[in-house]
Design goal:
It is globular, with a radius of gyration of 18 Å. With 214 residues, the protein is of the alpha/beta class. Strand 3, helix 5 and strand 4 form a beta-alpha-beta unit.
Length: 214
């Protein structure tokens, strides 16, 4: 039976330059197109990295939604530079899925050009002011975000980080945002934790608007 992980793995192999495109029949229906049909996929959510995936899936879970069961695949592209490639594979030129996702304000133009090159519409993407981590920290407030850091057992690492000369004079929000990216896997873990700590009425609008659109 097809599962979402198998589909994501297939997409990742193709996007990395694998030999089979989305229309190649492959063996036992194991290509991207065969897996998409078996899963009943209708929408692909394109996100820059796995921390964004963790946040989107955590918010969906808080609302009692199973995105995979609804025909929605949440995809980490491994960087904004890959948007044209993933849009070409998953969108109208490839598998014909509806595309949506998040992008950072500074990359809005790059996304628009990449989607245009892929022949995919750009209207379904929601824009974060800096990035999603910044949106989450701002929505929580620095004090509440620091409570999450302490509860997760990262207080010593956080204090060591604050003592670095480069952090002196920066706002607490900027410090927290930078701290989340200083260790491999930390952004992914906190993508989920920060969403789980939010009051439901304070979810950042790009994230809440994305979920409502699915």
């Amino acid at each position: 039976m097809a599962d979402m992980k198998a589909f994501r793995d297939e997409i990742g192999r193709w996007a990395a330059g694998g030999p089979d495109g989305p229309g190649d029949p492959g063996d036992s229906g194991g290509t991207a197109r065969g897996l998409a049909a078996a899963l009943g996929l209708r929408t692909a959510v394109l996100l820059e990295g796995p921390s964004d995936v963790a946040a989107v899936e955590a918010l969906a879970a808080r609302h009692g939604r199973d995105l995979a069961a609804e025909g929605v695949c949440v995809v980490s592209m491994g960087g904004a530079m890959n948007v044209a490639r993933y849009a070409g594979l998953l969108g109208p030129p490839g598998l014909g899925l509806r595309l949506t996702g998040l992008c950072d304000e500074g990359e809005r133009g790059f996304y628009a050009r990449g989607l245009e090159r892929a022949g995919a519409p750009s209207g379904g993407f929601f824009v974060c002011a800096a990035d999603l981590e910044d949106e989450l920290v701002r929505a929580l407030g620095p004090e509440r975000a620091e409570e999450v850091v302490r509860a997760e057992g990262d207080l010593r690492a956080w204090q060591t980080f604050l003592n670095q000369p480069a952090q002196h004079g920066r706002s607490r929000q900027r410090q927290l945002r930078r701290f989340l990216g200083t260790k491999k896997g930390r952004k992914i873990r906190y993508g989920r934790l920060l969403v789980e700590a939010l009051d439901t009425e304070r979810v950042p609008s790009p994230l809440s608007d994305l979920l409502r659109s699915l």
